[in-house]
Design goal:
alpha/beta; FAD/NAD(P)-binding domain; 7-stranded mixed sheet; globular
């Protein structure tokens, strides 16, 4: 791995998060890219654990060797009941970001065709090649994959729905055995922020250590002390762990939106990650999408077609628009919506649905689980916006 070289690259990846590193990993696994000059630009060296990724998949996966924990048992909890998830053949997996970063960076270091620059990108100018303007230097690439979200997304001057998945998590360590490390909690609605779509999930890695994270799907953020209050109440009144200490803290915000992030994609500049609609709008899950969409990009590049072709399209994205419309206008229904989904369907069907790999018959079974009135109202609003048939 070299640094600071000014030259023309075949490919440049801006941002070394999940999307950027999945993409470079897919390139490194394909001999087509072995002789290509590839540039990675990121503001950080990716040397700290700054987030946790969770996902489900069947059987063994390519990241199992660095998985922090894998569960076969999970629960959905409402104030009325604790429901065991029927996950088979799926397993729920948890990765710490530092382990993922370290693995991919180690492989990058052994590749002599990849350059890593620690810089911030200020501007892209697309001509015969793409000029990448950074604070101290310009770089040039034939194709660029950009994870930065367009500024216009934050201006909210269109009819796109903008919901935020925002969360704060504590990794707590208890003095006595509290957790069952063989099972996790997908959603627990026992403690909610006012009357919002909010819940806690619990990911135990041992009998005394677990990530406890309070999450909201709402249009607006809350003050930091709000997360702390909800986490304290959950630990003290629900988990009741006795004495414990907070050993790690993570916090984040993920846009959940039907905004057309992909509209600015060209043959030479492709948006990736959140900026490229890689985040599932109705759930916020993105890690496995990054793996799947990176594979699509590799195939498209090798075919000589637009890299983004076939990404984040299809009927499931229409469902997302309707779901987000409901959350926007009837956020208080969050608990009942997810209760209907998880109590009336096996988790395996829900996972296929959220992975956008379900059949139409499975889609209809999940859709029929919900109270119809809020979704019909949202459907008409979505049609009026022209999004259902876009």
């Amino acid at each position: 791995m070299t640094t600071g070289v000014k030259e023309e690259f075949d490919f440049a990846i801006i941002g070394a998060g999940a999307a950027g590193l999945h993409l470079i990993h897919a390139m490194m696994e394909d001999s087509f890219f072995a002789q290509k000059k590839i540039l990675i630009i990121d503001r950080s060296a990716k040397e700290i654990n700054d987030r946790t990724w969770c996902f489900w998949e069947t059987g063994a996966g390519k990241w199992d060797s660095i998985a922090h924990k894998i569960w076969d048992k999970g629960y959905f909890i409402s104030p009325k009941q604790k429901h065991r998830l029927e996950m088979k053949p799926y397993r729920y997996k948890m990765l710490r970001s530092i382990d993922f970063y370290s693995l991919i960076i180690q492989r990058i270091k052994s590749s002599d065709n990849i350059t890593w620059i620690k810089e911030e990108v200020n501007e892209l100018i697309e001509n015969d090649v793409v000029a990448i303007s950074c604070s101290n230097q310009k770089y040039y690439a034939k194709q660029v994959f950009d994870s930065r979200i367009d500024k216009e997304f934050f201006e909210a001057n269109d009819d796109s729905v903008r919901i935020l998945q925002h969360f704060k998590g504590w990794v707590i360590e208890t003095e006595k055995d509290v957790f069952n490390p063989d099972e996790f909690v997908m959603m627990d609605f026992t403690k909610k922020w006012n009357d919002s779509a909010s819940f806690t999930y619990v990911l135990p890695s041992s009998k005394r250590i677990a990530l406890v994270e309070f999450t909201l799907f709402t249009p607006e953020l809350i003050a930091d002390e709000g997360y702390d209050r909800m986490l304290t109440e959950y630990c003290d009144n629900v988990l009741k762990p006795g004495n414990y200490k907070i050993v790690e803290v993570e916090k984040g915000v993920i846009p959940m939106s039907d905004y057309p992030f992909h509209k600015n994609n060209t043959f030479k500049i492709t948006k990736i990650g959140t900026a490229g609609s890689w985040v599932k709008p109705s759930s916020g899950y993105s890690f496995k999408n990054a793996e799947r969409y990176s594979a699509i990009i590799i195939k498209n590049i090798k075919k000589g077609i637009k890299p983004s072709k076939g990404i984040a399209t299809g009927r499931h994205r229409k469902y997302d628009s309707i779901f987000l419309e409901v959350l926007k206008n009837r956020n208080e229904l969050g608990e009942s919506i997810f209760s209907d989904m998880y109590l009336k369907n096996p988790a395996s069907r829900i996972f296929r649905f959220l992975d956008e790999q379900s059949t139409l018959s499975e889609d209809l079974k999940i859709i029929s689980s919900f109270e119809s009135a809020p979704f019909m109202e949202a459907l008409f609003k979505t049609i009026k916006k022209g999004k259902l048939f876009a």
